Structure formats: C-alpha cells, structure tokens
C-alpha cells in the first residue's frame, strides 16, 4: 500500500487529481468530447442542411443559388409532393397500428406468463430479429413475396391461389404481385419494425404491480374488466413509446419501398431522389424538414402521454 | 395475480408472432443452397454448396467485407470513448441543460436515418471534404454513441461514488482508479455496448449510402445486388454470412448484461 501512496506522480496524473476535486470542472471535461462531437458534426450539419432549404436551384444551369428565398418551400407544396407526404404519413400510421396489435400478445405473454428459461428465450427471440441485418430481412421478404416465391407456392398447394389472385385484382392495395403492391410494402414495414414495438410494451407490462391486478379482482372485476380498465391503461405509455420507433422509422425509410412496392414515392425516396439524380439539395432539405416537424409534434404528444418514462 | 393460466388464444398468438419474426430468416438460409440461379423459385429444385465456393472466390465481396469490418471497428472504438464519457457525466450529476444533453444523444436515432445521412453529405460537400473511410466512420460513430451510452449509464448508476473516493483516499492516482476500480465495474456493460455498436455499424446502410461515395461496404454491396441482381444465390450466401457475423455479438451482449438491467435494445 505504501509504495502506491509514495510512488512519484507524473504531472498529468496530479493534474487529473486536481481536476477531480472540482466536480463542475470534472463534469465539463467529461462532457466536452461527446458534446463537441454531436454538437459540431451532427447538429452542425443538420442546421447547415436546414439553412439550405432557403436557397433555390436554378432550373436552367442546375446550380444552387445561395440567396434567401422561399421558392423552394412553395415548390414543396406542389400537389405531387403533398401526395408523397400524405402517402408516407398514412403508411406510417397503418404500420404503427398493425404493429401494436401484433406486438401486444407477444409482450403480454412474455411479461405475465413466461418464467425462467421461457422468459429468456422470449427476450432473445425478440432481440435477435431486432438486431439482425435490416437488408437481409428486407431481402428475405423479396424472396417470399416474389411472383414465383414461397407465398404463391404455399397458396397453390393449399388450393387457395384464387384468393391471392382476387386480392391482387383489387384496386389500390393490389398489383401485379405482392412484391409490387402497397400490401407488400406494408407487410415488410410491419415485419421489420415489430420488435421495436414489442420491447417497450413488454417493459411497461412488467411494471404493472401485481397487487393492482389482485385488488381489481377482489373488488369484483372480471379478468376482462381488469384487462380493460387496469392493465391496458398502464401499458399504453409502452405502446406510445414503441410507436415513436415504428412511426419514425417508416417515415424516413427509402429502401423498403424501393425493393418491395409499386412505383409510388415515399418521403425518404423523394429526399433521396432530390439530392441524388435531381441534384436539388434545397428541395431535399425542405423535404427532410417534414419528418423532423412531424416527429417534433409526435414526440411532444408522446411526452404528454408518459411515453418517455416507458422508453 | 401471476398464477392465472394464459388463455390458449393468447399463447397461440404470442407463439405465432414469434414464428412470424423468424421464418423469413430461415428462408434465406434455404435459398443459399438452391441450384436455381435465375428466379426465386420455391421450393428449390435442388441443393448445392456451389455458391459458397463462388462467393469465397469473389474479390469484391472480400473487399466490401474488410471495409465494413474496419469501419465498424473504428466507429465502435470512438463510440466507446464518447459514450462512456457521456454516461459517466450524466449518470449522477444534475445540472442545467441535462435533459437537452440526453436528447442530443438520442437524436441521431430518433430522427430518421436519411436525415442524418443527407445532412452529413451536404456538410461534406459544403466543406469540400472528399468521401473516404473517415467520412463513413464519422456517420457511424454518431449513432453508435447512444448504444454504448445506454449500456454504460445503467452500470454507472450502480457504481457507488464512495468506491472512487476510497480509491483516491488510499493513494491511487486517476489512472489506477480507473484501471482497478471503475473499469472492473463497468467492463461487461462496455463490452456489451461495444458489441451492439459493432453489429449496428456493420449492418448500417441508410446513412452509409450518403457518406460512402464510391466505396462499397458489405450492406451497400447487398443493396446494389437487391436493386440490380447479378448472381442471386451469391447474394443469399452473403446474407447468411451477415446473419452469422451479427448473431454472435448480439448473443454475447445479451449474455453479458442478462443479470437484472436489460438495456432495452429498443433504442437502435
């Protein structure tokens, strides 16, 4: 012990010791590197992008005019662009609702009935698809939904292929094959984001105190009443927390609709096309303000509903 | 009441949901062995190991793999340093603007990835920074910080500050305190966070398409194959490879953090 205490200290080491005795200074030094990184690189480029939405593209020369103008914003309000925004928001909402419905039984079973090994298995079985490769999952669905793919094969074997053909003949949701229809896009979105919904709901359900449920039963409520009036309201912040992910991720995705879906653009694809082939960074910047605004409103409501405590 | 029986319907829908989550991954594995290379015919007309040999001999796959590996390694290293610092600062201290700092940490994953990507790309253009491994790493580290932070912050909260003070009182210097007191306490959480960050970076495609320029990481290679297929079975083999490479870090991360605090991976 004494040789530790008596060891000669380098100047750097005594400097750190001195800093540690001043909590504020120590805190500032800890925070400086991550804050600088995120503040300069991330926020810096984010604001630079937003600022560019007030520039415009010269249609003839294809050069970006660096003068303040609102013309890019009026361009964003064109009916074709509004269609893209509405289509994306609608898809995000539908995916969120479908995921909440699919996630609830899994989360409910895992939180209230699964024990020990079973619980670990459930947790792992939800975590694995969450962290496994996004592209691999999208690719798997392309294989499944393709015209000659497994879904057609299964239905054919079951003698139910006429159902698929009838479904594909429907306007709007149908198409030449499932992999080139709104339905296909919808299925893949639901699949890819489902684990993001399960985990927060499960976490919220785990926190429902057992004695509340017993009290409800003691007071004469049927299991159905208990579920409706006790469990569901307490689990709701978890659903909202999960919906932040499903909604935001659908809103900005440009790869899934490109691989599985029709020719209609989604918000992410519009941003991608504007900055890429069109070279119209100002319009791409204006487009990317839309999901930021939508998420800003969404997060404000989510905070009011207590979702942040359930994250 | 925990003892009540689950209804059959609940059990079936829970298990059905889990099967829904996993069977597409199984399909990929089957397709990696198919002898049919022109279409997605199911069931495969025959099984072969040929595509593994073909993929092994493709230099473009090896180049993409090694780029992805290097990027993930450097991005994880940066994220480990920055995420740990942020976690150490935010775990106990209360100060003005604390909520804003934690909002800033989660912002890169709360906002759609395409926004991070395009913002970085336009910033690189504005500042005339050419695309390189460095620009990819810059983007990846930004969203990996929060993964490390999430894992580390829970562990820091359980680390009693009196341990650190005792170490100083007994004459240890700052490096010794970190090495012998702090690190053993947060080590497994950092390892878990690092592995998840690695898996996240290795697999990332949305931000990468904007920051890579002409370089091809493995996910970008796959994306190109998805949009313009050349040899479909080879893509299947690579997909299986990616599944295997990301599987083990995830399993290890689960193993390392399984006691008590599950850091909900929900925040990706």
Order of helices and strands of chain A: HHHEEHHHHHHHHHHHH
Radius of gyration of chain B: 22 Å
Largest sheet of chain A: 2 strands, antiparallel
| CATH level 1 name of chain B | Mainly Alpha
Q: Which class best fits the helix and strand makeup of chain B?
A: mainly alpha
Determine the strand fraction of chain B and express it as a percent band: under 5%
Structure summary, number of beta strands of chain B = 0
CATH class of the largest domain in chain A: Mainly Alpha
- Poorly predicted runs of chain B are 260-268
Radius of gyration of chain A: 26 Å
Query: In terms of per-residue confidence, which ranges of chain A show pLDDT below 50 for 5 or more consecutive residues?
Result: 1-6
Q: What is the overall number of helices of chain B?
A: 11
- Summed over residues and divided by their number, the pLDDT of chain A gives a mean of 83
- The CATH superfamily of the largest domain in chain A turns out to be MetI-like
**End-to-end span of chain B in angstroms?**
33 Å
* Topology-level CATH name of the largest domain in chain A: MetI-like fold
Describe this structure in words.
Chain A folds into two domains: 9-65, no CATH class; 77-310, MetI-like (MetI-like fold, Orthogonal Bundle). Helices cover 74% and strands 1% of the residues of chain A. Chain A contains 15 helices and two strands. In chain A, β1 and β2 form a beta hairpin. In chain A, α10 crosses α12 (223-252). The two termini of chain A are 45 Å apart. Residues 1-6 of chain A have low confidence and may be disordered. Chain B is mainly alpha-helical. Chain B has one domain (58-257): MetI-like fold (Orthogonal Bundle). Helices cover 73% and strands 0% of the residues of chain B. In chain B, α4 packs across α6 (133-158). The interface between A and B is large, with 106 and 91 residues.
């Amino acid at each position: 012990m004494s040789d530790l205490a008596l060891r000669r200290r380098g100047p750097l080491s005594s400097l750190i010791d001195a800093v540690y005795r001043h909590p504020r200074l120590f805190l500032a030094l800890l925070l400086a590197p991550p804050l600088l990184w995120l503040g300069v690189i991330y926020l810096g480029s984010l604001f630079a992008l937003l600022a560019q939405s007030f520039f415009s593209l010269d249609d003839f020369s294809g050069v970006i005019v660096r003068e303040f103008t609102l013309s890019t914003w009026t361009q964003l309000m064109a009916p074709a662009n509004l269609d893209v925004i509405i289509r994306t928001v609608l898809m995000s909402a539908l995916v969120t609702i479908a995921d909440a419905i699919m996630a609830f039984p899994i989360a409910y079973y895992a939180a209230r009935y699964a024990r020990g090994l079973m619980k670990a298995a459930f947790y792992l079985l939800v975590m694995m698809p969450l962290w496994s490769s996004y592209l691999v999952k999208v690719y798997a669905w392309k294989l499944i939904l393709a015209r000659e793919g497994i879904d057609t094969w299964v239905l054919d074997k079951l003698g139910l292929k006429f159902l698929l053909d009838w479904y594909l003949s429907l306007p709007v949701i149908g198409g030449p094959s499932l992999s080139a229809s709104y339905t296909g896009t919808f299925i893949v979105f639901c699949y890819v984001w489902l684990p993001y919904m399960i985990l927060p709901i499960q976490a919220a359900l785990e926190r429902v105190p057992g004695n509340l449920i017993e009290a409800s039963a003691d007071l004469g409520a049927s299991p159905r009443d208990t579920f409706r009036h006790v469990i569901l309201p307490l689990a709701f912040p978890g659903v909202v927390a999960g919906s932040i992910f499903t909604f935001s991720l659908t809103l900005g995705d440009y790869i899934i609709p490109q691989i599985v879906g029709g020719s209609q653009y989604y918000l992410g694809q519009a941003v991608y096309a504007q900055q890429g082939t069109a070279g119209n960074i100002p319009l791409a910047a204006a487009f990317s303000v839309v999901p930021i605004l939508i998420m800003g409103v969404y997060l404000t409501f989510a905070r009011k509903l207590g979702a942040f405590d359930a994250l | 009441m925990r003892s009540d029986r689950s209804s059959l319907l609940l059990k079936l829908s829970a298990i059905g949901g889990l099967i829904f989550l996993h069977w597409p991954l199984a399909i990929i594995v089957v397709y990696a062995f198919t002898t049919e290379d022109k279409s997605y015919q199911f069931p495969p007309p025959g099984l072969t190991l040929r595509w593994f040999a073909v993929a092994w001999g493709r230099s473009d796959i090896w180049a993409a793999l090694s780029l992805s590996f290097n990027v993930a390694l450097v991005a994880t290293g940066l994220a480990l340093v920055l995420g740990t610092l942020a976690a150490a600062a935010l775990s106990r201290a209360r100060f003005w603007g604390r909520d804003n700092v934690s909002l800033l940490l989660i912002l890169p994953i709360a906002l759609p990835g395409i926004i991070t990507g395009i913002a970085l790309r336009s910033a690189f253009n504005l500042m005339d920074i050419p695309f390189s491994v460095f620009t990819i790493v810059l983007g990846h580290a930004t969203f990996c910080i929060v993964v490390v932070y999430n894992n580390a912050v829970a562990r820091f909260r359980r680390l009693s500050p009196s341990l650190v003070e005792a170490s100083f009182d007994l004459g240890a210097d700052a490096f010794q305190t970190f090495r012998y007191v702090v690190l053993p306490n947060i080590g497994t959480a950092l390892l878990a966070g690092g592995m998840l960050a690695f898996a996240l970076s290795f697999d990332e495609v949305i931000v990468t398409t904007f920051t890579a320029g002409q370089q091809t990481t493995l996910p970008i290679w796959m994306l190109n194959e998805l949009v313009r297929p050349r040899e479909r079975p080879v893509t299947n083999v690579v997909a299986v490879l990616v599944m295997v490479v990301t599987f083990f870090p995830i399993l290890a991360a689960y193993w390392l953090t399984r006691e008590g605090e599950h850091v909900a991976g929900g925040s990706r």
